[in-house]
């Protein structure tokens, strides 16, 4: 689930293959501010689709002249990003 207010969004629950398509659509609909910050502190579970989701949100923001940044990535998501060599694209500022 994603909740947003004033360009700051909170993602809660799992990010897995089971819900990634829904989260992608939700985020693309909600991330409309010029600068969006996504807080991932309340993410409970991830798989490799979570990395794909963050990369797609990053690409979508760029296509629309917006910026997205991610905060408080869970350690397991950081590990996956490192494994895939994409840490610089989704790392915290």
Describe this structure in words.
By secondary structure, this protein is α/β, with parallel strands linked by helices. 44% of the residues lie in helices and 31% in strands. The protein has helices spanning 20-30, 48-63, 75-84, 87-90; strands spanning 2-5, 8-15, 35-46, 67-71. It has a four-stranded mixed sheet, covered by helices on one side. Strand 1 and strand 2 form a beta hairpin. The longest helix has 16 residues, at 48-63. The radius of gyration is 12 Å and the shape is globular. The mean pLDDT is 92.
Itemize the secondary structure elements and their pairings:
Elements: E1 2-5, E2 8-15, H1 20-30, E3 35-46, H2 48-63, E4 67-71, H3 75-84, H4 87-90
Parallel strand pairs: 2-3, 3-4
Antiparallel strand pairs: 1-2
Helix pairs in contact: 1-2
Q: What is the compact description of this entry?
A:
This protein has helices spanning about 20-30, 50-65, 75-85, 85-90, and strands at about 1-5, 10-15, 35-45, 65-70. It is built from 4 helices and 4 strands, in the order ββαβαβαα. The chain starts with a strand and ends with a helix.
